[in-house]
Amino acid sequence: MKMEYKILDNGTAVVLTRQPELVYDDLYVDFSGAPSGATAIFEVGGDSMYRLLHGETCSVPVDKLNGVVKVTVALLDGSARPRKWACEELLAEKQKSGGTLISPNDMNLPQRFVELKLENEGIRQNQERLEGRVKELEDRLEKLLEGYDLT
């Protein structure tokens, strides 16, 4: 199975593969838009697994995944503040028949919805402020041009 993420400019990443899949060996994860040399970090129960991305892909042994899996992509280049992307969490559930069911962890969707509404409100306010400033500049330019004969 290949789980697909999309890296966003706001420091997050979303899961594009929403359908749960049963995995037996390795989980392959693709991070579309990840910078060259990035590392994926999978955290399960306090333990961390670091996987260097080859291209935009890495793999994780599914037997190491259980419960909520926190996923982060970071550019570990030795800088004091490495660039990071907080990815949507995964949910790994061991199955009695063997294998592990992997799916996005949708338990936090109500909280994420609230965060998106707040972000949208901030964007709307910024847009209104920018439109006001553009109008002010247009008015000032119009006043400046009134004194000149451009023909």
Structural class: alpha+beta
What's the β-strand tally?
Answer: 11
Give the helices and strands as they follow along the chain: EEEEEEEEEEEH
Number of helices: 1
The 3D shape can be described as: elongated
Percentage of helical residues? 25-40%
Query: How would a crystallographer describe the biggest sheet?
Result: 11 strands, mixed
- Mean pLDDT reading: 91
Model description:
With 151 residues, this protein is of the alpha+beta class. The chain is elongated. The chain is 25% helix and 40% strand. Strands 1, 2, 3, 4, 5, 6, 7, 8, 9, 10 and 11 form an 11-stranded mixed β-sheet that branches.
List the helices and strands and how they pair.
Blueprint: E1 2-7, E2 12-15, E3 21-23, E4 26-32, E5 39-44, E6 47-52, E7 57-61, E8 67-75, E9 83-87, E10 90-94, E11 100-104, H1 109-146
Parallel strand pairs: 1-4, 2-9
Antiparallel strand pairs: 1-2, 3-11, 4-7, 5-6, 5-8, 8-9, 8-10, 10-11
Summarize this structure as a short list of keywords or feature phrases.
alpha+beta, single chain, 151 residues, 40% strand
Please sum up the structure shown.
About 25% of the residues lie in helices and about 40% in strands. With about 150 residues, the chain is an alpha+beta fold.
